[in-house]
Amino acid sequence: MHDTTVLLIELGAVILGLGLVGRFAGRIGLSPIPLYLLGGLAFGHGGVFPLKASEGFIEVGAEIGVILLLLLLGLEYSASELVTSLKTQYPSGIVDFALNAVPGAVAALLLGWGPVAAVALAGVTWISSSGVIAKVLTDLGRLGNRETPVILGVLVIEDLSMALYLPLLTALVAGLGVAGTSVAMIVAVGTVGLVLFAALRFGRHISRAVSSDTPEMLLLVVLGLTLLIAGIAAKLQVSAAVGAFLVGIALSGETAENARSLLTPLRDLFAAVFFVFFGLNTAPSEIPPVLLPALALAAVTVVTKVITGWYAAGRAGVGSKGRLRAGGALVARGEFSIVIAGLAASTDARITPLATAYVMILVIFGPLTARWTEPVVRGVKGLVDARRTRRETERAGTGQHGGSIPGAGEATAPDPVGGTGHPS
């Protein structure tokens, strides 16, 4: 009875704290993810108020949080949208992977962490946060902008890539060897292909079978089916998160919309628990030694994400302003980076604190780069053009002719960013 009482008190305090932190983050226009991570650091091993009685419950809640995150992500996309994105955005996806995964892999190798850690850290730096970015685009009123479909297309490619990447990482962490890893990848590719085929051909029938006019029944069926498939996927070394994502893809239409509205509050609750649990497993004393590498990695990958957005939006014929906005919007990292670091924590204990610091930095700076990348670059370009014009004017007025030249001061005004080419 005593243990149950302590468990209730600890859980009540944690959930109440998460609610207050979330309200505070909303008021200052910040994603609550870094505050959840800080809360986990405060209540974890080596923290100010370590939790003991509720740690096991929070661990299970964190697993459910990951599953619900991926399920809701899958519900956002239909199979046809995924196939269309693959056909139109795959060059941008390749550039995105090359520019953003390579820095993480190189950093892990330079730090001497080994090849498995390199694969894990590559994923941490590669994948943007769909949840944070979607909220930022909504808050900035950019859902109707020309560059927004490009941003969403890149995110779709990243999310679908996780269906292959997570099984690969899971097999490597488990030490399955070349044969075991190959089998895991074949199973993953076959599963993804089979689910996409079934969703395209029989999506309406699947959704009709799951659908219910009673919200309670729909919630129970979708949640139960997701947990079942996630468990089977984990047993097959495909990753529980991928199984949940595929369930979301298989559902479409009104069923997906109703399930999304019912499950969103549950996702938000358990996702918050997931971020807290990740922080619980990170001792605060482990953060300072990796802070400089995290800052350096964040600085590099801010630039590479901006370049990714610039390239992807350019392929769609978006002007310079829109291309800069696309790049700035893709900077935020979040849930996937934490999931990946959690999977790889057993490979090298230093991955967890580095990923925590890295995500905290970019989940804070992501909304700022989304808002300010385009105006800052435009302002800098304006200053550079103004200085160049002034120098040309001075050179023309006091140059070879030794005096002023009529009309020399009538310099041509520089073109603003985005003033030529396609409209932004």
TrEMBL record:
Keywords: Membrane, Transmembrane, Transmembrane helix, Transport. It is a multi-pass membrane protein. Signal peptide: none annotated. Residues 20-371 form the Cation/H+ exchanger transmembrane domain. Its main location: membrane. The keyword Transmembrane applies. Residues 388-424 are annotated as: Disordered. It holds the Pfam family Na_H_Exchanger. It is found in: Membrane. It comes from the Bacteria. The chain crosses the membrane at residues 6-26, 33-51, 57-78, 117-138, 150-168, 174-197, 217-234, 268-284, 290-312, 351-370. The keyword Transmembrane applies. Belongs to the monovalent cation:proton antiporter 2 (CPA2) transporter (TC 2.A.37) family. This is Cation:proton antiporter.
